[in-house]
Amino acid sequence: MEQLYIGLTSSTLLTSLLRHLCHFRSQAELDRYLEASQIRERAIERINNVIGTYNDLRLRIFSKYPDLFPEEVFNIESFKWSFGILFSRLVRLPSMDGKVALVPWADMLNHSCDVETFLDYDKTSEGVVFMTDRPYQPGEQVFISYGKKSNGELLLSYGFVPKEGANPSDSVELSLSLKKTDGSYKEKLELLKKYGLSASQCFPVQITGWPLELMAYAYLAVSPSSMGGKFEEMAAAASNKTTSMKDLRYPEIEDQALQFILDSCEFSISKYNKFLQASGSLDLDVTSPKQLNRRLFLKQLAVDLCNSERRILFRAQYILRRKLRDMRAGELRALNIFKGFRNLFQ
């Protein structure tokens, strides 16, 4: 029988890190390391959810039964730690309609972006199993997939960032916002709210491109009041709550929409550049070895995440610039041809 190696090297480190990811010790620390990435907002949301859940339980249960739930055990720090363990070790079982479970030892399997193997429940054996997608040699580490997640999601839930360019499912959240100076701002905002969106919305951008929803939002953001009759279909398309506009295009404002996305993209790139340039001087004032090690560890993860997300934005920037250049060159050629014809008849 072949022995297959299950990697355990990240276990203690991962638990420790997730504890900190679930609760940065201050708002300033969150801003310090995740200021450039939109994953910061997700981290804040998760922190608030954990704290809110604890406060609710403390009010309704813990405080009423202190003998059963002594504060030295059932406190906010241990609660956050427990949630860190839970977030990092839950296994979703597809054959059981996506139910989640804690599976001892199986949660020690490390993730690889190169495999599609996952854990699932087997009715025959009445246990959780997985089938490898390739042969393994004796002593070789076996990997599974934690799912098709971005590097930011992997950092937030599992405490690591894959090597730059190694994750085909990687994406970066690009934030687009309506301009309050837009004369149709209120009308557009009401329509966005109708479809569950807001005046500032994030969309995933991958190395291969961006979704229709992002383009629809950009069309809505730049559309003039004369296109008011199209506002609702743009808002619906931005929310993916329509099936009739698979190839949404408005040629008369496509240039402005692409420029709008490019401006947002370049603004995000500037934030990544600023953080990466400043990261070298971060934490130089820390004297405690324990605190320094932790901060350097978190900083390196933040730098790795920023590099991977900025790489995607650089690609999007290149594509957008090329599209705009080609469109504008085509418009210029068409204008020159028109002028030539007009001169013939003068």
TrEMBL record:
<dbReference type="InterPro" id="IPR001214">
    <property type="entry name" value="SET_dom"/>
</dbReference>
<dbReference type="GO" id="GO:0016279">
    <property type="term" value="F:protein-lysine N-methyltransferase activity"/>
</dbReference>
<keyword id="KW-0949">S-adenosyl-L-methionine</keyword>
<dbReference type="Pfam" id="PF09273">
    <property type="entry name" value="Rubis-subs-bind"/>
</dbReference>
<dbReference type="InterPro" id="IPR050600">
    <property type="entry name" value="SETD3_SETD6_MTase"/>
</dbReference>
<dbReference type="Pfam" id="PF00856">
    <property type="entry name" value="SET"/>
</dbReference>
<dbReference type="InterPro" id="IPR046341">
    <property type="entry name" value="SET_dom_sf"/>
</dbReference>
<dbReference type="InterPro" id="IPR015353">
    <property type="entry name" value="Rubisco_LSMT_subst-bd"/>
</dbReference>
<dbReference type="InterPro" id="IPR036464">
    <property type="entry name" value="Rubisco_LSMT_subst-bd_sf"/>
</dbReference>
<protein>
    <submittedName>
        <fullName>Histone-lysine N-methyltransferase setd3 isoform X2</fullName>
    </submittedName>
</protein>
<feature type="domain" description="SET">
    <location>
        <begin position="37"/>
        <end position="147"/>
    </location>
</feature>
<keyword id="KW-0808">Transferase</keyword>
<dbReference type="GO" id="GO:0032259">
    <property type="term" value="P:methylation"/>
</dbReference>
<keyword id="KW-0489">Methyltransferase</keyword>
